[in-house]
Amino acid sequence: MSKPSVVVLDYGIGNVHSAVRALEAAGAEVELTHDRTTVLEADGLFVPGVGAFAAVMEALNALKINELIDKRLVAGRAVMGICVGQQVLFEKGLEHGLETEGLGQLPGTVELLDAPQLPHIGWNTVEAAKGSKLFEGIENERFYFVHSYGVRNWELEAIGSFIPPKVTWTEYGTKFVSALEVGPLSATQFHPEKSGPAGIKLLTNWLNTF
To answer: Shortest CA distance to 146 belongs to which of 55, 84, 54?
Structure first.
């Protein structure tokens, strides 16, 4: 049985090499690239991200990554974003008084966390969504966070046949979205590649969705 192929998106920003190693440990055949054909044809696309929302969006826009993500999602092909790679999936980010348009795959705004001390650095628990595939078998584990911004007070209600995302929450000062699962799109605010065995298990769970 062949390994699933995953592209770690190489756009000049992000913890790419640790992500590659973690995905390989989880069982994937990994390529680090931004070649458009390779990005579209891989079984999974992994979008890392560190730093400022605006800087990440500038780099992604330069490569027209939004088009590639749209095409993959329409075709039902897996995409996963982590840290700022999760944040940019939303409509906009508010950082340092600057409003930046995101990729817009999800409604909502990324804003400063309401917490007594920032950044939020270190290990924290999650309140895994009911029926989560990402957290299967690791619902009570801790994961590694490094961030000051996130999505707060966010939910999409079921309307007719519309199935809302599975939303996982974490509390730091207040609750924020720490993971999402909606169709072929997955995302985590924390760093699975820095979260030890639990992070590798989460990545393995993701690989098992395609």
So the answer is: 84
CA dist., res. 154 & res. 113, Å (int): 13
Q: Where are the domains of the chain?
A: 5-207
Paired strand residues for 110: 93
| Cis peptide bond N-terminal to 119, omega within 30 | yes
Q: CA–CA separation, 91 vs 108, rounded Å?
A: 6
Whether 17 is catalytic is no
Supply 44's token pair: 């999974």
Ramachandran sector of residue 209 (left: φ over 0; alpha: ψ -120 to 50; beta: rest): alpha
pLDDT digits (tens, 9 = 90+) for 75-111: 999 999 999 999 999 999 999 889 999 999 998 999 9
Which of 34, 83, 111, 147 does the annotation list as catalytic? 83
Report residue 104: phi and psi, to 5°: 75, 20
Q: How far is CA 91 from CA 50, 100, 109, 155, 179, in A?
A: 18, 9, 6, 14, 16
pLDDT tens-digit series, residues 60-74: 999 999 999 999 999
Question: Which strand ranges, in their side-by-side order, compose the sheet holding 174-182?
Answer: 29-33, 5-9, 44-47, 78-82, 185-188, 174-182, 166-172
Is 58 an annotated catalytic residue?
Answer: no
**Beta carbons within 10 angstroms of residue 27's beta carbon:** 14
Could you say which of 34, 120, 147, 191 is catalytic? 191
**Lookup: tokens for 136:** 């299967």
pTM of the model: 0.95
Q: Please, what CATH class does the domain formed by 5-207 belong to?
A: alpha beta
Residue 191 annotated in active site: yes
